[in-house]
Design brief:
Blueprint lengths: L6 H14 L16 E7 L2 E6 L4 E6 L7 E5 L4 E6 L5 E6 L13 E7 L6 E6 L4 E4 L5 E5 L15 E6 L10 E4 L7 E6 L3 E3 L2 E3 L1 E6 L2 E6 L8 E4 L10 E8 L4 E7 L3 E9 L10 E9 L6 E5 L6 E6 L4 E6 L4 E6 L6 E9 L2 E11 L7 E6 L3 H4 L4 E5 L6 E5 L4 E5 L8 E6 L5 E5 L8 E2 L5 E4 L6 E6 L4 E6 L6 E5 L8 E5 L6 E6 L9 E4 L13
Antiparallel strand pairs: 1-2, 2-3, 3-4, 5-6, 6-7, 7-8, 9-10, 10-11, 11-12, 13-16, 14-15, 16-17, 17-18, 19-20, 20-21, 21-22, 23-24, 24-25, 25-26, 27-28, 28-29, 29-30, 31-32, 32-33, 33-34, 35-36, 36-37, 37-38, 39-40, 40-41, 41-42
């Protein structure tokens, strides 16, 4: 393999050596301090790590001829680094400092780092939050607390959140901090709606999920009060935890599925006259829909004017089609238990015309068969619309490839030879692909042309070309802990990066379209860049 790039590694190695020579100043204790990093996080053709002790991000530019590394300061005590959706930026959430000898108190912050090298933006979220959720377009982010996580403070408010408009500059009003209404619980997660038309105006809603209730926040009008909806009666002590949301914008309806509940909850957002300047102009009405035993997945089917809810319930071994407006349910018995739904449009062995259909399958080794469901005339035909396809082994996990008209199934289990199956959605046939690795940890490249795997027990990286489903592999210098594909841009090819276990940073960069050992590039020591700038403990 070509000689590794050692620009950063060698320069810092000489600096460290000089400090240890006789007659030189005493060796700085920072050189022996542990290097703890968050990441890496991919954005464009950069990878970003966050040195938690130095409170600095190291941005490695893989499009640079010299593979340049730049250092960007972030807030004290960084706890999370994530990519901003639909933007070539990385967000770093820091808890700040409560104040220590020689370290003044500092508020929590959210730093936004551009892959292009533009100056970072820092939003002061104030409190020591430890989680960030964001809208699908990356416009809004909410900093909040994860349950049962410590804050490192004597007192904190677990229902406090900070709403950040990432398209606007930091200001006294951005972020907007507030406390969501609580019925004794704390937020478990935050989800976001697509634009929901309410009173003729599209709104983006943040939905805070807590045990036994959900809270709706109108991000389009952040000054308005939140709306909280209980999913149980006050005297009901069940630990119902909402885990899945679906949004039907045309019907202004939110569907919630919850653990420990056999119902799906439909929240219809009815327009109302606001009660004062800070009042909302909508009010949710709730309807509980029987969904079988232990519903595990749901999907919206049908046209907007006749939208229905498809639910699979492994406990009752059936699928249910629910019309929330008419309050009717059609039960479809299944020959094989299912806990997942994949909607797709394709022909079938008996109909050459592409049409909306559903694949119902189970992960976790629950079944060795899958069900194809014809979505037309379900009310009348019910079980006649189901075709069962037998598999050779139970399915542990699956990767949906609807754009390829296929699903890749992983049958690997302890003590057995690895095996993948390729399920053709149109032909409804199953083709085995023998493998030495499971699908866990497999990664798609940015345009879903290849699927990459890199097991930690061998110095090889494998891939499957998704246009032909032909497998291949590349020999590396050492085992990889993770594979990160990076997209091409402005004439540059896409790349795939194999990370290696090294505290100072070690990786191999390959051409994603033509991965060859001979053209690979190895980089080591990049996390030592600006080591002597690290803050004293």
């Amino acid at each position: 393999m070509p000689t590794p790039s050692r620009r950063t590694f060698l320069s810092l190695g000489l600096a460290a050596l000089a400090l240890a020579l006789p007659g030189c100043p005493e060796r700085d204790a920072l050189l022996d301090a542990p290097l703890t990093v968050l990441g890496p996080v991919a954005a464009a053709q950069t990878l970003t790590w966050v040195d938690t002790r130095a409170a600095a991000a190291r941005v490695l530019d893989l499009a640079s001829p010299t593979l340049a590394v730049r250092s960007v300061p972030v807030g004290l005590d960084p706890v999370l680094a994530v990519a901003r959706r639909d933007h070539d930026e990385v967000m770093v959430l820091s808890r700040g400092s409560r104040g220590e000898p020689g370290v003044p108190p500092a508020p929590g912050t959210l730093a936004v780092i551009s892959a292009a090298g533009a100056p970072a933006r820092t939003y002061t979220v104030g409190s020591p939050f430890n989680a960030v959720s964001q809208t699908s377009d990356g416009r809004f982010a909410i900093a909040h607390y994860l349950p049962s996580a410590t804050s490192g403070r004597l007192l904190f408010n677990p229902n406090e959140i900070a709403v950040v408009d990432l398209d606007a500059p930091p200001s006294a009003a951005n972020p907007a901090r507030r406390t969501v209404r609580s019925f004794g619980g704390v937020p478990n997660a935050v989800a976001f709606s697509p634009p929901m038309p309410i009173n003729g105006t599209p709104r983006t809603l943040a939905v805070v999920l807590s045990d036994a209730y959900v809270t709706l926040i109108d991000l389009t009008n952040p000054q308005r009060a939140e709306t909280t909806v209980r999913l149980t009666l006050p005297e009901d002590a069940r630990a119902i935890r909402p885990t899945q949301l679906l949004f039907d914008p045309e019907q202004s309806t939110v569907y919630a599925r919850a653990e420990q509940s056999n119902d799906v909850y439909a929240l219809r957002l009815a327009p109302v006259t606001p009660d004062g300047p800070d009042g909302n102009d909508f009010r949710p009405t709730i309807n509980q829909l029987a969904a079988g035993r232990n519903p595990s997945d749901m999907a919206l089917i049908g046209e907007a004017s006749a939208r229905k809810l498809l639910v699979v319930s492994p406990g009752s071994r059936d699928a249910r089609v629910i019309d929330a407006r008419a309050n009717t349910t059609v039960t479809v018995p299944l020959d094989a238990v299912a806990n997942k739904i994949l909607l797709f449009a394709a022909p079938s062995p008996r109909d050459a015309t592409p049409a909306p259909r559903a694949l119902l399958y189970a992960t976790g080794g629950l079944a060795s068969a899958v069900s194809f469901l014809e979505l037309a005339d379900l009310d009348a035909r019910r079980g006649q619309n189901v075709e069962t396809v037998q598999l050779s082994r139970p399915v542990l996990s699956a990767l949906d490839l609807p754009e390829r008209g296929a699903v890749m199934l992983d049958h690997t289990s302890a003590g057995t030879t690895g095996q993948l199956s390729l399920l053709d959605l149109a032909r409804r046939t199953v083709s085995p692909i023998f493998a030495e690795v499971p699908l866990q940890g497999a990664t798609f490249d940015s345009d879903r042309q290849r699927l990459w795997v890199a097991p930690s027990y061998t110095a090889r990286m494998g891939y499957i070309a998704l246009d032909t489903f032909g497998p291949g592999e590349v020999r590396l210098d050492e085992p990889a802990t993770r594979v990160i594909p990076l997209p091409g841009a402005m004439g540059r090819p896409g790349r795939v990066v194999a990370l290696h276990p090294a505290s100072a940073g070690s990786l191999t960069v390959l051409d994603a379209a033509n991965p060859q050992r001979e053209t690979a590039r190895v980089v080591r020591g990049f996390l030592l860049d600006s080591l002597l700038d690290r803050s004293a403990p």
